[in-house]
Specification:
The protein has 202 residues and is α+β, with helices and mostly antiparallel strands. Helices cover 31% and strands 32% of the residues. Helix 2 crosses helix 4. The protein is globular.
């Protein structure tokens, strides 16, 4: 699901077309299709965008009946819903939401989303975004090949380029917690934020 989010940041589709894509993906087994590659910074994003557009056109021809009669197995977690408050997001999840108590300097809460059961919270500093994702842990390792540098500090894996760090990931075995910045940040920004996670409302 994180992979989808990063790709869609570079591809602009109508809400209806995006929903059709997501429904089709869900029906084809999201867990098998999901890869942990963070595509926001992949140099080959043009190819990914082209693929997404082709999928949108193809699905547009066959997905009408699925949208009109959504699969019963999608359930409460079977949608992409934006919330104004973290409280509303927490109420929509079937697990206890963990949130960071510390943020990089200058960042504040902007919005949050439940993407098929994956929690996403976006913080902003002007035009810059710092995104936090929480989802049930998946099998397989995260692919950091698109980054120049990686390191692990206190169970937190950092990834980035010469200008600074762009991503941090950690897990407790049950859930994966990811932090993505669209501009390079200091190591301490990611480490301090990742270490500050606590159960929402506590």
């Amino acid at each position: 699901m994180i992979k989808y989010s990063r790709i869609m940041e570079k591809v602009f589709l109508s809400e209806e077309a995006e929903m059709r894509i997501m429904t089709a993906i869900h029906r084809c087994d999201i867990q098998k299709l999901r890869q942990k590659t963070k595509t926001r910074f992949i140099k080959g994003i043009t190819a990914a965008a082209a693929c997404a557009v082709i999928c949108a056109v193809s699905i547009n021809l066959i997905a009408d009946k699925h949208i009109q009669n959504p699969p019963a197995d999608l359930g409460a977690q079977g949608s992409v819903t934006e919330y104004k408050t973290v409280s509303d997001l927490a109420s929509s999840l079937d697990y206890s939401l963990m949130v960071p108590d510390v943020l990089p300097e200058g960042y504040s809460y902007a919005l949050c989303v439940n993407q098929f059961g994956m929690a996403q919270i976006i913080y902003k500093n002007g035009e810059n975004e710092f995104k936090y994702y929480m989802e049930p842990a998946q099998e397989g390792e995260i692919d950091y090949s698109q980054y120049e540098n990686t390191k692990t500090e206190d169970g937190i894996t950092l990834a980035g380029n010469a200008d600074g760090w762009l991503e941090a990931d950690t897990t407790d075995g049950k859930f994966t917690y990811s932090f993505i910045s669209d501009v390079p940040l200091k190591e301490s920004d990611f480490i301090n934020t990742a270490k500050s996670l606590k159960a929402y409302g506590k």
